[in-house]
């Protein structure tokens, strides 16, 4: 596979005008393959020098998040779908429905270790934590398995807290021994993983969402809150410290659909949190690939999903699976060159949105498609380029 990409001019703009909207064109598109692979997940290296992209071909490809250049791939080991990938320094971890968690050196693109969850197992999610970050937790079928990363030995198995597939596990960053798990059984559990781990003594709390859970995330100044997206496209917000439901958006899709002028929101891809402003957005999308960043308002008795502050319109031609927001300028990572972020989806594309005024970027997101993007700015916490600055669209094809 070539490491350089042909650049093709693709200047397309719309003439429609919307109050409070600012528009800029899609900067480039990367076709990740020569077939029909899906893009499952996009994750960045901490220093933003590389991003990993998992594909439905059981392969992970690496690109420069700034230039879009292909730099290498980790392949030939997983025999089933890759469910999660995670960078840690120069090391990339991946888990799969083949029952393994594999570790890759991204300098050589070679596998350096492999943990096996056992026969007939599937690994849906994993997280590193514990007091010294050497405890590895993995969500499997109805079990949570634990390994000591230093010696790669399994140290515990929780098998009574969930009745169905454990889709998510997350160690809480500010409480390294606290683990959050979520499952198709509709339960979110928290565990204290200090000492010898078991179901009887270490289960701290159970939160009942009531329907199959697809994705959860920790947010808040001290990661004291949790958002939850379900497989029937509902959203709920929980207080993690007292296991209390703060807001339940069973009508999240209609609320989001009614707050913009595009097609109805068919599903939610993810949530995005800004610690600087303490703001939460839910990212909704259409089956045709349009995305919106919808602010979630739930404090003071309010429960609403507001008009989108960013709309990526016309980029993808199918379902979007992953959104990667670039780091803000406040992190000191100025080498992003105005990249807003990346998206990947079932059309096999990575889409990138850029601004020519990178110094003005405070929050950023990117998409990968062939057409254009519109940003609706109704909240000063999000800064993007002005109306008159519309970078030329270019299409990059591998």
Structure, explained:
Residues 9-21 have a biased composition (Polar residues). This is Transducin/WD40 repeat-like superfamily protein. Residues 1-21 are annotated as: Disordered. It holds the Pfam family WD40. WD repeats lie at residues 75-114. With 398 residues, the chain is an all-beta fold. The strands form nine sheets. Strands 24, 25, 26, 27 and 28 form a five-stranded antiparallel sheet that branches. A four-stranded antiparallel sheet has the order 3-31-30-29, with no helix packed on it. Strands 4-5-6-7 form a four-stranded antiparallel sheet, with no helix packed on it. The termini are close together. 3% of the residues lie in helices and 47% in strands. 46% of the residues are buried. It has two helices and 33 strands. A hairpin with a 4-residue loop joins β13 (135-139) and β14 (144-148). The radius of gyration is 21 Å and the shape is globular. The chain has helices at 199-202, 252-257, and strands at residues 6-9, 21-25, 28-31, 39-44, 51-55, 60-63, 70-74, 82-88, 91-96, 100-105, 110-116, 125-129, 135-139, 144-148, 153-158, 166-172, 175-183, 187-192, 203-208, 213-219, 225-230, 235-239, 244-249, 267-274, 279-285, 291-297, 304-305, 310-312, 320-325, 339-345, 349-354, 372-376, 394-397.
